[in-house]
Specification:
It is a single chain. This protein has three helices and 17 strands. The protein is of the alpha+beta class and 381 residues long. The protein starts with a helix and ends in an 8-residue tail after the last strand. The chain has two domains: 26-192 and 238-250, no CATH class; 253-373.
């Protein structure tokens, strides 16, 4: 009787242990998902801090623009949350500017060179990290930002934003909308005037969003202005294109691959945690088009009797091509895979055997990396 009682207690304790482990596993997945959400929400504030810092330096005639100091860790949850489990911090770096050093790899179109405006471009990088209350990093986001700069208010404004995980091949980096950068003359196609006879402001092409210089005619009431108070004062020697070096554009593609590898690796870790507790393992499904991928974790393997209608626990996306695959993970973390299975295909007659490690190739069209997922453990190597 005592032996039976002890056996029963042991079983109960084992069940409690499994339940606790399951709760912790899902908590880890949920925490990472929430941290990514807060990293996304924190970027606008970091962007504002960057613009304000650059504008302040220009307004105060700084001899050389410097990247602003990092933003100290602060509660990520915003106002109204009394106890926030996450902190968010951001750091900034500059990656090039018009007139700077480096081999030109992008072009600014028709910068306003009037001395009173002195328009320029500045490339910057924002790196955000969300941590737990214990200081453990949970999510990171890196964003490339291109600023327009001026010698007059507002001194700086955001001109272009790109997620650093994105693959970017744009030869003209973040420039004025409405102007076709491959045909700069189109920017003034609707003004109906030659450069020697500037058109009145009211006749400028409304699709042209460049900065324009205007001169104001003051005739003291003698009629010399002929009713045209403002006239264009754009310098006649504005260059159609101003080449400059932007390190963000230079390094965006390699970063896209490394970011995708890191994100898929983290998703495999989450899938392994889900597999331990769902009662039927987990499936990591990767689908890919020519230039992007989607990866989702489902709390089941497609075995007979499984509820294939359950929603994905977590989904990520990226802008590189990844080898399509369905990776089936059992509660012990071992894997099997199928190249074509999707939930629409229904349950498998039998789960595939893992005869060799799965090879996942990450490609941006120029370079590629291949990483293995071993049969013995759902982990990207």
């Amino acid at each position: 009787m005592l032996a039976a009682s002890l056996f029963f207690v042991a079983i109960v304790m084992l069940a409690l242990g499994v339940t606790l482990e399951g709760s912790l596993a899902f908590a880890r997945v949920s925490a990472r998902h929430a941290a990514e959400h807060y990293a996304e929400l924190g970027l606008p504030a970091a962007r504002t801090a960057l613009v304000d810092a650059v504008a302040s330096q220009i307004a105060n005639h700084a001899p050389q623009l410097e990247a602003p100091p990092p933003l100290a860790p602060a509660a990520a949850c915003g106002d109204g949350v009394s106890s926030c489990p996450f902190t968010i911090a951001a750091s900034f770096s500059f990656a090039g500017f018009t007139g700077g050093d480096g081999p030109a790899n992008v072009s600014a179109t028709e910068l306003q060179t009037h001395p009173a405006i002195a328009e320029g471009r500045l490339a910057a990088t924002i790196a955000e990290t969300v941590r737990s209350a214990a200081g453990v990093p949970l999510a990171t986001r890196t964003e490339f930002v291109t600023l327009r700069t001026f010698s007059i208010p507002p001194y700086a404004q955001v001109d272009g934003i790109t997620d650093a995980a994105g693959a970017r091949d744009v030869p003209f980096e973040a420039d004025a909308g409405g102007c076709d950068p491959t045909a700069p003359a189109s920017c003034d196609s609707g003004n109906g005037a030659s450069p020697s006879t500037p058109a009145p402001a009211g006749l400028m092409n409304p699709a042209d969003t460049r900065i324009h210089a205007l001169s104001k005619c003051v005739d003291g009431g003698n009629g010399a202005c002929a009713g045209q108070i403002y006239a264009g004062a754009d310098p006649p020697d504005i260059a159609a294109q101003t080449p400059w070096f932007n390190a963000n554009a230079e390094g965006s593609k390699p970063y896209a691959i490394s970011a995708a590898v890191a994100n898929v690796g983290a998703l495999l870790d989450d899938a392994r945690s889900v597999a331990q507790t769902s009662g039927n393992g987990a499936t990591l499904l990767i689908s890919s088009s020519g230039t992007s991928f989607t990866a989702s974790v489902y709390p089941f393997r497609p075995t007979s009797g499984a509820d294939l209608g359950l929603a994905a626990v977590r989904t990520i996306r990226g802008t590189v091509h990844v080898t399509p695959a369905a990776i089936f993970i059992d509660s012990s973390g071992t894997t099997a895979s199928d190249a074509s299975w999707t939930p629409a295909a229904g349950a498998l007659d039998s789960e595939p055997r893992c005869a060799a490690d799965l090879q996942l190739t990450f490609s941006d069209g120029l370079t590629a990396q291949t990483h293995a997922v071993p049969c013995s453990r759902a982990q990207l190597q």
